[in-house]
User: What shape does this take?
Amino acid sequence: MNLLRIYGSLLDQQHCAWALISDGREPITGTGRLTDLPQRAERVQLILPASQVLITRARIPHSARRRTGSVLAFAVEDQTVGEPDANQVSWLGSVDDEDALAVVDKSGLARWHLALNAIGIRIDEVHCETLLLPIQTGEWSMAWNGSEGFVRTGTFEGAATDSGDQTTPPLFLRLMLEEAKTRNASPTSIALYTTMPDTAPDIAAWQHELGTKLHTAGTWDWRTAPPHAGISLVQQQERWRGFTGMAARLRPAAWILGAALALHAVALITDWTLLASDQQALRKQMEMQFRGSFPDAVAVVDPALQMRRKLAEARHSAGVADSGDFLPMIVQVAAATKTLPAGTVSAVSYESGQMTLKLASNENTMVQTIMARLRQSGLSVDAAPNNDTSTNTLLIIRAS
Assistant: This one.
């Protein structure tokens, strides 16, 4: 069986890197437009960058597991930007007494499906590069390209890091280790994989800064990861081939299949009914908590949003700045962008808790780096859609 891996950003559905993996052969690799992709692969994986997949924990109803839907989206609403329906949330597995969930921008993923369908390629699986990284029990694994990378902290967990250098590890890695200490879940060591030649940091300096043992584990590349590595965030049904001219011979099987589909439909309707009931119960609980805190409220339309607004009003009444005010936000933005070259940020505007940052560049790597730094500062950030001819990029920033 041959496997086609496509590495692409959710912000760009026109260009990608790819690898065609066949049993017993060296992978065939390439980079370019979608029209250059190999055709007729038996299995297709879309690989998303670590910075574009949020892996988090939550507690969800048992019936909502192994599903992608609104119940899971509402479970991580406080950790995501925008409306719950804007994200596709997938259950990865259980971690202790919680559930590991992966959050992906739904519209960006849908655009990838449309773009690849247009050239006759169907995605079978969607993976995050974080969970393709090898990992050993009790140990963390980190991929590093010389300036930034990502960490896999468990079977179902990991995150992208901010920037660092030869002697200074990423700040976010230090924060992850400190948080793990509070849960008595510190790793015994960190295996460091390099993704580019000659990018290995000073291991002794990093160990001194982190207070954790590190060791080099060689090079790593998503192109050569084992075919069955990782956990698919979205998995399509198996493709059906070779039934042409076999209708008469398969008629008995068709009756059996029809009966099985009927039973499946009944089970599906029952499942969706249970999910709808769980969603209503969660929303009712949110409304009760809001009304308990604010009994004078006339109507409750969006309890989470209304609660956030009431909290902001209470802070303003007490003379305390809210995280969505201009001054706290501009301080965080300034700290996250202070190392950028002069002139990179060409304009800043603010209105109603939302700040717009205009960058005098549309270079994808730089934009992704800035977005990662802003997120590490505790802000929620999205890139606004822009036409291909513009040299500017607009970042929409909100308080988390």
Summary: The chain has four domains: 2-131+231-235, 134-219, 278-320, 326-399. The chain has a mean pLDDT of 85. The helical segments are 70-75, 106-117, 171-182, 203-210, 251-293, 303-317, 326-337, 364-376.
